[in-house]
Amino acid sequence: MIREKYEINSTEYAAVFLNSKLDATRRRVSQKKGFRVYDKGLIGLKYAESDCDEEKMFHGAEEMLRYQVPYEPKPEADKVLHMDMTESERKPDYKEFEDQCEDLVVRLKKRFPGFIFSNSIRIVEEEHKLVNSQGLDLSFKDRYYLGEINLKMRDGINVSDGAIPYKSRTFHPDDIFSHAEKVLANYDNVIQVEEGKSYPIIVSTIDCFNIYYGFINTCFERELNGQHYGAGGSLLCGEMGKQIFNKEFNLVQYSDPAKYIGRPFFDAEGTIIDSGVVDFVKDGTFLRPYTDKSVSLKYGLENTGSAEAKPDNVPCLGGIGGNGIPEIRPVGLTITGQHRDLEELVGGERAIYVFFSLAGSYNNMGGYALPVQFGLVYENGEFVGRTQELMCNTTIWDMYGKDYRGLARNTLMPTSAHDYMVIDMLANQNG
């Protein structure tokens, strides 16, 4: 019998904004421990969210073997590797951080009195540990700043009109303010778009307010899921090795912490990708779906180390729900490619920057509808106004194929971990 423990310790210190003021600071500490035992192709699991008697928890996991939960893969063995991304960094000064956040929201309120700013910026510290009785001993520690400053027009009817996202291992409030100045300076100027015309649509690749989630998770995280692909349900079945997307388009999974903030270098099963990167789509060619060990064994696919790191679940492609079906959410999925300037990709055309979008829909034929609640008109290198609410329509084949212009350098907030895609889409007034 093999014993294994997955542990995640995290601390968050948040500066909380309410009604364009620093309302409070909050500190939250959490500890999650998953105790796994493997025996004769079965797995037993117990979970705790605090200090506990670990021997007792392992005995509890052994008792869970009676439920006959299958787990065929062999647990990792004889791997020892520890990585600490914080060891060369200065420890955060919480008082200084609080003062910087308060100064930032005061400046934002003064510069943009027509908006109400809320939500928070957080200092996140996380440590992941995976050890077992076969000589596996892995740990990863990271610290980063994560923020979404929500904004709402004072005279608007929406609950929210967008957000200014931030994710970086360093904190630069001046960059957040500069970003707000660039995108909101002319928000009072409402510009009508031509009904049914195709526009270059600028989309951030950060997972804020469903922009990145809508484009990536609902499309590729479904079609690239190894279980879905192996069972023959993916739109990409039969396309492996073929160039089916634009040559400028690349989709990868990073497990290199230098390239993807907050993701451990190992997955929930202890799989380590030596290069720190797995190519799913390279130069437009579909190379492989993403898998964990179980899916890899079941369908004869390459193990891409995509088991989600949740101590309270059996390691798999995602958290197991009540019906036993894995969710679809690999961490580290990122669009890459040759970066070009935004002006180069857009040229002299009028473009629309998707500042806020929710509830995009994706169907099983590859169609995608993107509602734009707050769009900014980009022209001649600057944002000149905003649009009315729009609905943009495309397909997975078009938006990453003939209509994909490329990946733009992040010139709006250079220290934040995201880039911009430019994709041609049909735009119509929404309602």
Account of the protein in words:
The chain is of the alpha+beta class and about 425 residues long. About 15% of the residues lie in helices and about 40% in strands. The protein has 8 helices and 22 strands. The strands form 3 sheets. Strands 8, 9, 14, 15, 16, 17, 18, 19, 20, 21 and 22 form an 11-stranded mixed sheet that branches. A hairpin with a 2-residue loop joins strand 18 and strand 19 (about 380-385). The chain is globular. About 40% of the residues are buried. Mean pLDDT is about 90; it is low at about 210-215 and about 320-330.
Q: Summary?
A:
The chain is an alpha+beta fold.
Features:
alpha+beta, globular, 7-stranded mixed beta sheet, 11-stranded mixed beta sheet
Q: Count every helix, treating DSSP H or I runs of 4 or more residues as helices.
A: 8
* Beta-strand segment tally: 22
- Please tell me what the overall shape is: globular
Q: How much β-strand is present in the residues?
A: 35-45%
**Percent of residues in helices:** 10-25%
Helix- and strand-based class?
alpha+beta
Calculate the mean pLDDT score and round it: 88
First and last CA, distance: 61 Å
Low-confidence stretches: 208-214, 319-328
> Rounded to an integer, what's the Rg over CA atoms?
23 Å
- Biggest pleated-sheet summary: 11 strands, mixed
The H-and-E topology, N to C, reads as EEEHEHEEEHEEHHEEEHEEHEEEEEEHEE
